[in-house]
Design a protein that fits this description.
Rossmann fold
Length: about 200
């Protein structure tokens, strides 16, 4: 499939990158210095990481995913991908040196899982979507964890669902982030947040 103008391989069972995620990927690339470091969490096929690498070829882009099928797929797409939970497999020497953390983690609230398109869960596991009661379980873990990996002034970009920017506001403040932008799609729906570590 095409993602940000590049063909991305998506293996069976691996989360299929969505069109609305392209804006987040492009913004992550803009936030990454030409020779910077970017982390892509829950990388899936590696579409976001591959986009950053294409636009910032001298940068180091590291990706992680819990699903070994996704890790294998991302590697086939040329991504430096590691298997494990969020920041767990990231090389330790990058702690405190990362310019950008971007994450498209599962963020669908439990009550809304039933409203996903009928064929979605035929091809993808519910683990790719389910984010807990409010959809923020993994998002909160990323906010906390990224504060240890980002350099001061580094960017955190999260894909979000409706109302989740408000749910995360206290977490962002607690970990010393300043919200730079709330990202919306062309129809005005919330799609993400960009925050900078103080």
């Amino acid at each position: 499939m095409s993602f940000c103008g590049t063909e991305i391989r998506v293996d069976p069972g691996v989360y299929v990158p969505r069109l609305h995620t392209e804006a987040l990927a492009l913004r992550a690339a803009q936030c990454c210095p030409s020779k910077g470091v970017a982390l892509d969490l829950c990388t899936g096929s590696g579409a976001v990481a591959a986009t950053i690498s294409r636009l910032r070829p001298a940068a180091q882009v590291v990706a992680t995913d819990l699903d070994e099928r996704a890790v294998a797929c991302a590697r086939r797409n040329g991504v430096e991908a590691y298997g494990g939970d969020l920041f767990g497999p990231v090389p330790a020497h990058l702690k405190g040196r990362v310019d950008v953390v971007v994450a498209v983690v599962p963020y669908v609230p439990e009550r809304e899982l039933q409203y996903l398109q009928r064929d979605t869960l035929t091809f993808e596991t519910p683990l790719a979507y389910l984010g807990g009661i409010e959809g923020t379980d993994l998002l909160r873990r990323v906010v906390a964890g990224a504060s240890l990996w980002l350099r001061p002034g580094g960017a955190l970009l999260l894909e979000l669902g409706r109302g989740q920017d408000d749910l995360l506001r206290d977490d962002l403040t607690r970990y010393h982030y300043a919200v730079v932008a709330v990202l919306h799609d062309e129809e005005g729906d919330l799609r993400g947040v960009e925050a900078r570590l103080g």
